[in-house]
Design brief:
Elements: H1 3-6, E1 27-38, E2 41-52, E3 56-60, H2 67-73, E4 84-92, E5 95-96, H3 104-110, E6 111-114, H4 125-135, H5 143-152, H6 156-159, H7 172-184, E7 190-194, H8 202-215, E8 220-224, H9 228-234, E9 237-245, E10 251-260, H10 261-266, H11 271-277
Parallel strand pairs: 3-8, 3-9, 6-7, 7-8
Antiparallel strand pairs: 1-2, 1-4, 4-5, 9-10
Helix pairs in contact: 4-7, 5-7, 7-8
The protein binds adenosine-5'-triphosphate (ATP).
Adenosine-5'-triphosphate (ATP) binds near residues 65, 69 and 253.
């Protein structure tokens, strides 16, 4: 382990016993010179990033550096914020995500999102899962689909006997897995997670982290997390962002470094990354 790894005893990166074979990056998203504005304010400036297929990519960095802003660009959620605008280019499987012909609703079906606070609908567990497919035109009974989504989200065994119960009666961790099941039910390709464990206790957090390892067999995952240990535990690659002042004294979020997670946490190439992960900054 390098000097930085030695000075960070609390952060364990999965070692050679769990080889991940991630040298070749098969891009799902390619981000080129992405800047994101809220009105006249350029919150994020000049990001270049590639998100690999069926990998977990973590986005870390201090508060306000633009992690959530960049994440929301991947499924065009920023379109829903008045005054928000993206410049630059994001391709999704080689196609311009912001092209004129692209339907943002279909984008959000294929690229699902799980939020910081679990947000199930105030409906039954069953209807939470069935809702999306119904909206997308699926008719009739959905028992198999509901079971499949709940099984994939590692929740089936805990709820199979109470599917008609209100989802709000579940624990926070169960609600979050239900939200993941709800995202899965509309057969997405990518799942975006914005601090999905920050409202959960350590046991529920471990369950979600284990679940992410299962899910990456079928889905590409991008996670924003404040928790560096979590990024080190779950992700294949890590993007470190920071916010920096320009010559005019205006603060912009910037991508500092993007690399394999093991390298970011043991041998980063940028001093700012090193300072952040060793706790000297942020
Ligand atoms: N809806 C919005 N309208 C105006 N400014 C916004 C909006 N959302 C975010 N910003 C600004 O954009 C910048 C980046 O915010 P963002 O939430 O993306 O950062 P973050 O790294 O995810 O922060 P945190 O870790 O605290 O969640 C901040 O200066 C923030 O104030």
């Amino acid at each position: 382990m390098s000097e930085i790894g030695t000075s960070m005893p609390n952060i364990t990166v999965r070692g050679p016993e769990a080889p991940r074979n991630i040298e070749a990056l098969d891009p799902v998203f390619s981000v080129e010179s992405l800047s994101v504005f809220y009105g006249a304010y350029e919150a994020v400036r000049g990001v270049d990033l590639t998100i690999g297929n069926r990998e977990i990519t973590a986005m870390i960095g201090p508060s306000g550096c633009g992690k959530s802003t960049v994440l929301r660009c991947f499924n065009r959620m920023n379109d829903l914020i008045p005054g928000a605008r993206a410049a630059g280019k994001i391709t999704y499987h080689g196609e311009d995500l912001y092209g004129d012909h692209v339907d943002p609703i279909e984008v959000r079906r294929r690229i699902g999102m799980v939020f910081q606070k679990p947000n199930p609908f105030p409906k039954s567990i069953y209807d939470n899962i069935a809702y999306g497919p119904r909206v997308n035109g699926k008719k009739g009974k959905m028992d198999d689909l509901v079971e499949d989504a709940l099984t994939k989200a590692a929740l089936w065994d805990e709820v199979k006997d109470k599917l008609k119960q209100n989802a709000l009666s579940l624990s926070g961790g169960q609600q979050q897995r239900l939200c993941i099941a709800r995202a899965i039910a509309v057969t997405p390709d990518v799942i975006l997670m914005d601090e999905p464990c920050s409202a959960l206790d350590p046991i529920a957090t471990t369950k979600i982290e284990d679940l992410m390892q299962e899910l990456k067999r079928d889905y590409t995952i991008v996670i924003v997390t404040h928790n560096m240990q979590q990024a080190a535990r779950v992700s294949d690659r890590t993007a470190f962002f920071t916010a920096e002042l320009d010559e005019q004294g205006e603060r912009h979020g910037r991508l500092v470094e993007f690399d394999e997670t093991s390298r970011i946490f043991t041998n980063p190439s940028d001093k700012r990354t090193e300072d952040y992960i060793t706790g000297r900054f942020g």
